[in-house]
Here is the input.
Amino acid sequence: MRWLAFLLLAGPAYADIVCTYAGDEVVIRLHIRTALGRDFDCIHGGFLGNALPCAPNGAFSLYAPNGQFQGITTGRDYLSHQGSVIGHFIDVSTIAFTGGYGDANGYQQTWRFVIDRASGNAQLARGEQTISYRCSN
Here is the structure.
């Protein structure tokens, strides 16, 4: 499926990627907003509850425990952050989001969602469980 390979070449136009598994949906929203001079992409799905976490490509967004956005980092600052952390990375083969939470004991990644851009297949990893999705735009 070439659609994922070319999706990001179109520039900052808003685009959705919808991934499904047995009636469950995960939606990736590319270029949904601009803040701090960066385009932000977001992920939404049942495993996230009502949250719509967003991050720029190649960075981590930091959220307070109450869900309020606190900023972004491209370094390892997220490892000592107390609150939610959303990482987002796009390269030639994948579109990925990671999520976790930091507290006084440090950062713990709790989930990862990765789309294979060549096949349109995706996987959600949460703890010991991995669920395979099929994506389209």
About this structure: Residues 43 and 132 are 16 Å apart (CA to CA). Residues 1-11 have pLDDT under 50 and may be disordered.
